[in-house]
Amino acid sequence: RGSRCSASPGPGRARPRPPAGPARPAGSLLRWASSFSEPGPKESGPSEGQIFLSESCVKRLLEIAEGSEFLRLQVEGGGCSGFQYKFSLDTVINPDDRQGRRDVLVVSGARVVVDVDSLAFVKGSMVDFSQELIRSSFQVVSNPQAEKGCSCGTSFSVKF
Amino acid sequence: RALLGVRGAEAAAFLQGLLTNDVTQLVAEGDAPRALYAHALNVQGRCLYDVILYRLHRSTAEEPHILLECDSSVLDSIQKHLKLYKIRRKVTITPCPDLSLWAVIPGEQPGDASSLPKCADQALLLTPDPRAEVMGWRLIAKKGANLSEIIPGSQVGDIQDYHRHRYKQGIPEGVKDLPPGVALPLESNLAFMNGISFTKGCYIGQELTARTHHMGVIRKRLLPVSLPGPLPAGGVPEGAEILTQAGKRAGRFRAGAGELGLALLRLAHLGEPLCVRLPGDRLELRATAPEWWPKAAAK
């Protein structure tokens, strides 16, 4: 935990950045570009709010998503603190769905989709895949809208 | 009291995360009860609204239609509360101004209970009050319905008699008895009134409530009290301190009607002579544990 590198954010678990990797030949870049032009959910603009994916989230999604599956994040009312996150693997996109930031989703097959209503509660958050002794799961971390939550992390209340 | 209609496929699931009691019991297959008592708590575990849920739909094949009874002064506030947590749930929330809600209290003579008829056409629902047998039944009918047709031999009473009956029995109801953000559900005898499930999943305010139930001791409870002496003009104020004869703090007055009321009292002082402290006066006060409490409760 040194303080030598001020540019990178410290040894946290989740931060957005393009994956490190060897330089790739032009042919492969073209291949990625074509996958982005596929029809898909509209990318959320700055006014609607954006969500970010951590490296571990992208990695885990690539492991588990089959075919056209993507990770859906919803916010539901209820739970110990008022609102709770719900993760699921889904294949159906609806007109009011929004997709996580593209410049983090550099590999097709690792998509996170949120409907506009839920996005209002999670905009600016990061989705992480955290592996702990108690459980391994997708978690919403650093939600700028959320106030204290319940002890297990599933539920949160909102700053008004 | 006012009625709010909650309809839709997700009605029960929606309410489940917001209320202390197990709403799935209300909508279960087979011989499910038609009424359920519950509180909506805030995130800190304090009471916000005391409600009674009624199941209007008769079978699980029909679209769920639940009525929610609440204090009429918080109808707008509870609607906002529900809408805040609705998000994308497939439910509609609408007031029901064309319905009227009645409390049917058993008469003095024994045998009145068995003579209660089944629902007539004008009654949407007639069901035992889920809180306690001493509260009789709840009746939901269209506004202007003829009650003596629905329940022959009954008389329309004065609402003040209803409140006096509640205070005599020790049944809190509404925002005066259960001030939002102040009252605690377990101290308000929610468990004795069949209003809470300790085996259901998460709901708002569950953490403190479950922890108190499993690990804590409940030292104070809302108790029915009576003031035998002369009463001050305007009644006893909410929050008035109650003391033992030795001057030790025993609790606080909550609300009342005439010489009857409810007070939050330390159970240790139950049965002792007590008094309410008012500016320039001390009124004698007596507290008793209600008959309908579980026998081991008054400790």
TrEMBL record, chain A:
Its main location: mitochondrion. GO terms for molecular function: 2 iron, 2 sulfur cluster binding; 4 iron, 4 sulfur cluster binding; iron ion binding. It is found in: Mitochondrion. GO terms for biological process: iron-sulfur cluster assembly. The keyword Iron applies. Keywords: Iron, Metal-binding, Mitochondrion. InterPro entries: ATAP, ATAP_core_dom, FeS_cluster_insertion_CS, HesB-like_dom_sf. The keyword Mitochondrion applies. One of its GO terms (cellular component) is mitochondrial [4Fe-4S] assembly complex. Pfam families: Fe-S_biosyn. Residues 51-153 form the Core domain. Residues 1-48 are annotated as: Disordered. It comes from the Eukaryota. Belongs to the HesB/IscA family. Involved in the maturation of mitochondrial 4Fe-4S proteins functioning late in the iron-sulfur cluster assembly pathway. May be involved in the binding of an intermediate of Fe/S cluster assembly. Heterotetramer; forms a dimer of dimers with IBA57. Interacts with [2Fe-2S]-ISCA2 forming the heterodimer [2Fe- 2S]-ISCA2-IBA57 complex; [2Fe-2S] cluster binding is absolutely required to promote the complex formation. NCBIfam families: iron-sulfur cluster assembly accessory protein (TIGR00049). This is Iron-sulfur cluster assembly 2 homolog, mitochondrial.
From TrEMBL, chain B:
InterPro entries: CAF17_C, TrmE/GcvT-like, YgfZ/GCV_T_CS, YgfZ/GcvT. It comes from Urocynchramus pylzowi. Its main location: mitochondrion. Keywords: Heme biosynthesis, Mitochondrion, Transferase, Transit peptide. Pfam families: Beta-barrel_CAF17_C. SUPFAM superfamilies: Folate-binding domain. GO terms for cellular component: mitochondrial matrix. The keyword Transit peptide applies. Belongs to the GcvT family. CAF17/IBA57 subfamily. It is found in: Mitochondrion. This is Iron-sulfur cluster assembly factor IBA57, mitochondrial. GO terms for biological process: heme biosynthetic process; iron-sulfur cluster assembly. One of its GO terms (molecular function) is transferase activity. Residues 219-295 form the CAF17 C-terminal domain.
